[in-house]
Amino acid sequence: MDDHHEMWSKLGMNLENHDALLEVLPPLYGDIFLGQEGRPAGMAYFDSFFGEIHGARIRELVEHREAGGFVVGSFCTYVPEELVLAAGGICVSLCAGADFATDEVEKDLPANLCSLIKSAYGFKIGGVCPYIEASDLVVGETTCDGKKKYYEILGKQVPMYVMELPQMKGPRDRVLWRGEVEAFARRLEEMGERRITEESLRKAMGTVNAKRRALQRLSSLRASDPPVISGRDALLISQIAFLDDTARFTSNLETLCDELEQRVAAGETVGTPAHPRVMLSGCPMAIPNWKVPQIIETSGATIVAEEMCTGERYFRDLTDEKAGTLDAMLDAVADRYLQIDCAVFTPNAERCENILQMVRDRQVDGVVYYALKYCDPFTIEAGSVRSELEGAGVPMLYLETDYSEGDAGQLSTRV
Ligand code: BJ8
User: What does pTM read for this prediction?
Assistant: First the structure.
């Protein structure tokens, strides 16, 4: 990585902590990704993105702000990124994939909170997340209780805006959510000092849908047997989708998919027909949370799908681009996001239906259910998912873990 210390310093980051973090990440990345055999050549783009994940990409965000734009940071797939783009902003997800400054974190947050929230706070107070430091606004959502209450604490440290997400999906909930989408659009217009127009929103919807279509294409290619790309690489791509420039990401992913199509035709694979085909299901995995995929794929299985927000839940649904007026477009945005089947909703039967569909489409042999400790929505919903899968004759392995490496041996044995 080039020397970006001056930029990080101007952003107010803790350089000592950050240097320590940057020493750990490249070897970890090398072990998990670069040593894989038969990797597609198109992964080189994503490797190079990762190499500059805290450098060149952050410089782009800084330059965007200097040119009059703004940056919005978020923690959830419910935040409508089309609206941010349409108002002249860039939407990025914030760091939350590794333990950091845990002792300090636990002075403000309970120890029995999920790793994802504690990690997000650790990266903030440790001064090691350039994405949050480069954000003009952090957007939260009323999903799980842990995040809701965490946003009250975070809101004392950064400019914060919270969208009220309903907990059900009836007509009154839809009205509430549509109002929230509209209010968010108005807030973004204030930030960007420009109106969101039919033209700008239509363009943004097209740009974001193109990204989701490219991710859907990758997902379909993973139906090949044996697989042509590892689950680790596919997960990495999903993680980068939340950080990279949307159009550039899409173009590089389409190039990779072209290569994968050729590999399917040529029979070039990353596994053998004897490898079990595994689907991951559950909580999201933010960079650099690769512990479980690494264990699964070094134990003789290949991951062929992720039923999680860093996976199918992020790109399954498109926003209807046929809407003619601005009002109708905001309807389409609201409707698209309300389809997301996160476990924070009740009831959430469509999640099980979607899981069964994915099992069929990807010819899945078994599901590894990944739950973060203390995540009530996903740990509780595991029971319904298990009984649906058992009914369909598909085995499920339930793994409850956190971001520490202490249980890696035990997880490995169970896998
Ligand atoms: S849409 S999955 S990104 S809420 S793991 S913080 S739920 S206690 S991350 Fe999520 Fe949006 Fe849903 Fe996706 Fe709470 Fe669970 Fe922690 Fe979680």
Answer: 0.98
